[in-house]
From TrEMBL, chains A, B:
Keyword Manganese: no
Provenance organism: Nonomuraea muscovyensis
Location of the DNA-binding region in this protein: 22-61
Name of protein: Redox-sensing transcriptional repressor Rex
Lineage start: Bacteria, Bacillati, Actinomycetota, Actinomycetes, Streptosporangiales
Xref: HAMAP family: Rex
Name of encoding gene: rex
Amino acid sequence: MKSPSQPRDRGIPDATVARLPLYLRALHGMAERAIATVSSEDLAMAAGVNSAKLRKDLSHLGSYGTRGVGYDVEYLVYQISRELGLTQDWAVAIVGVGNLGRALANYGGFVSRGFRVAALVDADPEVVGDDIAGLNVEHIDELEAVIKRRGVSIVVLATPAAAAQEVCDRVVAVGVTSILNFAPVVLSVPDGVDVRKVDLSIELQILAFHEQRKAGGPLMAVDSQ
Amino acid sequence: MKSPSQPRDRGIPDATVARLPLYLRALHGMAERAIATVSSEDLAMAAGVNSAKLRKDLSHLGSYGTRGVGYDVEYLVYQISRELGLTQDWAVAIVGVGNLGRALANYGGFVSRGFRVAALVDADPEVVGDDIAGLNVEHIDELEAVIKRRGVSIVVLATPAAAAQEVCDRVVAVGVTSILNFAPVVLSVPDGVDVRKVDLSIELQILAFHEQRKAGGPLMAVDSQ
DNA sequence: ATCCCTTTGTGAACCGACGCACAAAGTCAG
DNA sequence: CTGACTTTGTGCGTCGGTTCACAAAGGGAT
């Protein structure tokens, strides 16, 4: 079709990586609506970013656009998916099957993106053995065995804060290097292990800050005493 | 107690605001363990950040430390809480009571930080009327009425993607200016409305990217870092 | 084949955030 | 009261990311 764009510079900026899933989502929507080609302007609009930023982001992957035309939707979906590693199947284990763990287990957004919930683990004898989202909840004592047996490479921590570090240490010890942490604690991990954290309460606090400023901003100097 | 702390600069960097909840959490832990005073070094350690960054962050709020000693834990908790607006009570409505909405409704981390789940709303007649976390689920037709009646100022969207924009428009129309969006869509809102988004699938995709790179590392020329 | 129009890919200026390193400020012992 | 020691608050160099603006590249019409 065109000159073989090489596998590209492996040094993709973090900020770009964080946006690729956004573009991918927008592109999936377009593919569903049978849109064959899209301009950086339109795609940027759909993803809620600046078009120059989008073009620069995509340029990190290679030269996949056609000047005067835009980007081929299908082709771009494939390239981004490959770059993100979504063309392979990732086995995910969820540790902690409380309210949140349960919700995550049932969340459809994972499966549709190449992620497969391969195991549920909990410490509470009350839930161990239960069937959730078609999976049997296994005991925390089996943690290491389950991870190895199922080929789990990404662990989602949905445990209480107090248990998170210990579970983290154990999964790292058996070779897991990617962790998504929902527990409200700062995990300490060795170099080479990636931890991403999602803290619902923090998001609300940030909103509250801005809300407060909006409410008090116009007139009040906000009672500093 | 000490020199009058001036009304701090109203222009606190976003990056700083995003970290304040982190410091606050660490400080709460210390207060529980009856630690009266903490140095920037120790607090930074507990929060997982650089100590110079922490000092600079805190300096945006005012001069609340004592040279040679550190920061008074209680005092700092109060100052950060006030800055974030956590000294007041925020009424939160959760729209969409599926797996995720339910988990959020039961999540304890909200209440403990000055947030109060004041309403649950859903469109499914099957769940409307149910009692969840001590709250009655109300019908989406009542959305505007409920928001006004309960004084809701922050809305959490846990609806399916397809419904999110419409709900968003409606809550914005009745004056809500702070939204926490869990639906995998880019919301468009007028100026002055803050939207923060949490997308679980995006976090996993970012992890997958790094994991893939690590996996390919030993053989491929990846450790260019 | 040539010209015009569209859109990409990127050079370069700008902006904010990070972290080092240090002077200023305060404590505490004697 | 003085001097040694600790820790804050910040000036400044650096770096990564964002945005503008435009030359280069390709398509399509005539």
